[in-house]
């Protein structure tokens, strides 16, 4: 087996790409930020409500999301909720507490 250059040479990170890498977060990082399950973030990405891209290919590909996109999604979601409440005449209030006992 020959040693030396491989078919897919690895490139060293350039200074500008290192800055760019600090602007990306993983699906799990977004889930931590939004305080939700990673599958919820995955559904948002697949539906297009949250912007991101796959890094890699196949089953093991990982999502990467720009740091500003979860905040943008929160602002859009809040605006949609406020618009729905204004159309129905409701005001945002705390939800009623659920009964902790299960019905049999």
Number of helices: 4
Helical residues, percent: 40-55%
Low-confidence stretches: 9-15
Q: Which series of helices and strands comes N to C?
A: HEHHEEH
Number of strands: 3
* SS-derived structural category: mainly alpha
Largest sheet: 3 strands, antiparallel
Subunit organisation of the chains: single chain
Mean pLDDT: 77
- Estimated share of beta-strand residues: 5-15%
Any idea what the radius of gyration is?
21 Å
- What is the strand arrangement across the widest sheet? 1-3-2
- Alpha-carbon distance between the two ends: 68 Å
Shape from CA axes? Answer: extended
Describe the model:
With 104 residues, the chain is mainly alpha-helical. The chain has a domain at 18-88. It is 44% helix and 11% strand. It has four helices and three strands. It has helices spanning 15-21, 27-34, 38-47, 68-88; strands at residues 24-26, 53-55, 62-66. The protein has a three-stranded antiparallel β-sheet with strand order 1-3-2. Helix 2 (27-34) packs across helix 3 (38-47). The longest helix has 21 residues, at 68-88. The protein is extended. Mean pLDDT is 77; it is low at 9-15.
Précis, in short:
It is built from four helices and three strands. The chain has helices at residues 15-21, 27-34, 38-47, 68-88, and strands at 24-26, 53-55, 62-66.
Key attributes of the depicted protein:
104 residues; mainly alpha; 3-stranded antiparallel beta sheet; 11% strand
